[in-house]
Give the backbone structure.
Amino acid sequence: MSDSQSEMPRHRDPLFRTAETEKMVERESWRLFGIMAEFVEATDRLANIRPAVTIFGSARVPPGSPYYDLAETIARKLSDTGLGVISGGGPGVMEAANRGAFEGEGPSVGLNIQLPHEQRRNPYQDVSVGFKHFFARKYMFVRFAMAYVVMPGGFGTLDELMEALTLIQTKKSARFPVILVGTPFWAGLLDWLRDRLVGEKMIDPEDMNLIQVIDDPDEVVEAIYRHYETRGFAPLPNERELLLNL
């Protein structure tokens, strides 16, 4: 084989970059700095809000609706015990959660995301942190919450719920209460999880114990305190290690 035949065409050389490629690489590098800045700023802003509970739910729930009122009541009861309440910072259930906490004793925290529609910052936040990237925001929900209260919601709510269950199941996160509120809303999903995921051995039957379904606000608060009553809210040494490697 001649030298000319053995040479790799420049466009096939993995080290070859066009001017356009160089420009894209530079933009990506600066984007990474922006992502790092989101992690640093949020970690600094949220450092003193523990212990806190994250409440998820639909942005489309209007004030005065049953889900809105229920979320506000739960948040107020949690806040009155001194716990912080974290939400996505937007309208709907997020607003209800922040509103309830804002009127209570604990801090009301909003982790806001920039979206082309629906998301707007609600006014009931003691601490407000903005994000461009969903994954940075999702990390902060898990990093700073010691329980999840999941109200009825759409894809975003389901995304956060499944993220938490996956992290707990795979032991990438410490086990913490994951409480679904609204039995009629969640019943079909829970039946499907049992019938399909457990029934077809996609998950273990014990994995269903990672989820609690509680509709009464006082019982939601009691379940969270019961989980921590023998160990306290502070992360245990092994849990601190998990958080560092989340």
Residues 19-46 form the longest helix (28 residues). The two ends are 52 Å apart (CA to CA).
